[in-house]
Structures are given as structure tokens and as C-alpha cells.
Amino acid sequence: MKKIIMLAILSVHFQVLAEPVESTRVLKDSTTWVALELNDQTVFCTARGYGSIELKVSVPDLDWLAHFDHRVVGEGQPCITGGSCTDILKPGNIVNSGDPIVVAPMRVALSEVTRLDRQAKICERQLQETIQSTIRGHEFNHYRGDTWKPAKFEICEKEAELQGRK
């Protein structure tokens, strides 16, 4: 009976080891205050690049604050989105001709996701970036990531040890 229990425990242990392990490492997480000019050209609703009509705010500073290009295809400036345009979330509630410049926090979080499969001796990496801001009381964000890329297994394994994922 003890042998059966021991075999069952070992079987579960090896099944757990066989599963690929994903981990995330923060490479950059910083907030920078930026001045945004809010007008009809920089705040508008568009379906371009989103699949639904979204409220967009152009953020030129993302050209140097972000790792990825946050432009929507066909648009000139990098942007963030506030979500689907509605009667409440619309350009008229963000644009104020009497106060066209707003200073807003722009949080840029860049992370590396690693997928380590010890059984197959494969490692892959991917970068992911999230932009977050609050503009005139409304939350805005944007996401970009690249494709999974192969990485050297031995290096990933050593990094996993450093991060305590033995």
C-alpha cells in the first residue's frame, strides 16, 4: 500500500514538472506626467484598429515613453483608449475649449513573459506593454505585445532559479 501511495505522489510530482511554466518579469514600470492638448483632432471616436467604436486620445509623448508603437493603423499619433463611445464616454466630455490642455499621469508598464517547458527543453519569451492614464476623471489604457520568440533554454532555466521557480 505504501508503494502505491508513493508511486501516486511521484506521478503527480512529475506531471507538475512536465507542465510548461509561465512567469512575468517587470522590466519597466514608471509614471510620467504629460501635457495633452485635447481638441477635436486629438480626442475622437473611431473603429479603426479596435473592431468597435472606441474613444481615443492621442498621446504624442508615447513616442519616447513607450517601447512599442501605440499608433492605431491609419492614425498619425500614438493613442490610448477609454473604451466604447457612449453618451457618457464621448469626446464632448473630455474636450473643454475653455481648458484645452490637461496634465495627466501616463503609466507605462513593460514586462517580459517567459514560458519554460522543461520536459521539451524549450523556452520562449514575449514582451508586453500596458499604458494606463486618467484624463478628466476617465480611465484610459492601451496594450501592445510582440510574438513569442525562442530563447536559449539554459539561460531561461538559470533565470527561473534566480526567481525561485525551480
Report what the structure shows.
It is a single chain. The protein is an alpha+beta fold and 166 residues long. It has one domain (20-162). The protein has helices spanning 2-18, 62-65, 153-162; strands at 21-37, 43-46, 54-58, 79-84, 101-117, 122-135, 138-145, 149-151. The strands form 2 sheets. Strands 1, 5, 6, 7 and 8 form a 5-stranded antiparallel beta sheet that branches. β2 and β3 (54-58) form a beta hairpin.
End-to-end C-alpha gap: 30 Å
The biggest beta sheet reads: 5 strands, antiparallel
Q: What is the 3D shape? A: elongated
User: How many separate domains?
Assistant: 1
Order of helices and strands: HEEEHEEEEEH
Offer a few descriptive terms.
3-stranded antiparallel beta sheet, 45% strand, 166 residues, 8 strands, single chain, elongated, alpha+beta
SSE blueprint:
Blueprint: H1 2-18, E1 21-37, E2 43-46, E3 54-58, H2 62-65, E4 79-84, E5 101-117, E6 122-135, E7 138-145, E8 149-151, H3 153-162
Antiparallel strand pairs: 1-5, 2-3, 3-4, 5-6, 6-7, 6-8
Compose a concise summary of this entry.
With 166 residues, the chain is of the alpha+beta class. The protein has helices spanning 2-18, 62-65, 153-162; strands at 21-37, 43-46, 54-58, 79-84, 101-117, 122-135, 138-145, 149-151. The protein is 19% helix and 45% strand.
